[in-house]
Amino acid sequence: MNHHVLTLACHDQVGIVHAVTGYLAAHDCNIVDSQQFGDPDAARFFMRVHFTSEYLDNTDLRIGFEATAHRFAMEWQIHDTAVKPRAMILVSKFGHCLNDLLYRGQIGALPAEICAIVSNHRDFESLANAYDVPFHYLPVSPETKAEQEKAILELVEAEHVDFVVLARYMQVLSDELCRALSGRVINIHHSFLPSFKGARPYLQAYDRGVKVIGATAHYVTADLDEGPIIEQEIARVDHSYSPARLAAVGRDVESLALSRAVHAHAEHRVLLNGSKTVVFR
Ligand SMILES: Nc1nc2c(c(=O)[nH]1)N[C@@H](CN(C=O)c1ccc(C(=O)N[C@@H](CCC(=O)O)C(=O)O)cc1)CN2
């Protein structure tokens, strides 16, 4: 019995669910879980269906679904859940999110395969080796940025990477790279966006005297820290927290927000809705 996940988005109208479930029933597919959402402001409809198919493989299902998708002008995909998406992780000098994802991957708690680690520093080469994940040292400076980003894209192609995770990668990706990987790059920003954008958010939080700090996992766009939010996490703090202690609490919050976002993305639970997301839990 093969398990598949259908995701779709289209203009909201009568009959979408009926058409989708009718197609699945007509092809002897059994629905395991189905979630949908109609956005009244965008007049857009979003759906995720987890189903089993005894007779048809993923290719047959996709070919068969074409006509229904065309009728509603859907953006859609049917994923075979036996195929784990391949993730490439980029990191700079802070390794807590990388370490968390590697451990979750090792114990089978991450529905993705970490196929490569890229860094502009060598700090986590030994950690990558310990987890037997290929490590790629790609230093960067303002002068070599275009060349370095070309090497990143070539690695994405060569390793058949499905999505990229910026696990505290402290370089701003160019517009070109963002366009080339649109909807496929997840970043962890170490603040509760939209508060404290840019670099040094914990110092900003300390100076502001906040009582709650947070972290935000979002898709990367050319506009720094403005991408569609996937997941956020928070922790309570108080006046006694130094900037260093805020950063220490922040490491746990960042790791949790990022791992949840990666998990949801890898299970095809996150659909883009303009500058926002729909996340089916
Ligand atoms: N195109 C985008 N690229 C990146 C984003 C993004 O939202 N869009 N997020 C960052 C991560 N980040 C905050 O979450 C961040 C990283 C780096 C900087 C920054 O100012 N970097 C300096 C260099 C710093 C250094 O060399 O240590 C710079 O690039 O000039 C701000 C925010 C990841 N990329």
Number of helices: 8
Distance between the termini: 23 Å
What count of structural domains? 2
Low-confidence stretches: none
Q: Average pLDDT, to the nearest integer?
A: 97
The number of distinct β-strands equals 13
Strand order of the largest sheet: 7-6-5-8-9-10-11
Small-molecule binders: ligand LMY7XDAE
Task: State Rg.
Answer: 20 Å
Estimate the strand proportion: 25-35%
Assembly of the depicted chains: single chain
* CATH C-level name of the largest domain: Alpha Beta
> Helicity range of the residues?
25-40%
Query: Per CATH, what is the topology of the largest domain?
Result: Rossmann fold
What overall form do the CA principal axes indicate? globular
CATH superfamily of the largest domain: Formyl transferase, N-terminal domain
Structural class: alpha/beta
> What is the correct CATH architecture of the largest domain?
3-Layer(aba) Sandwich
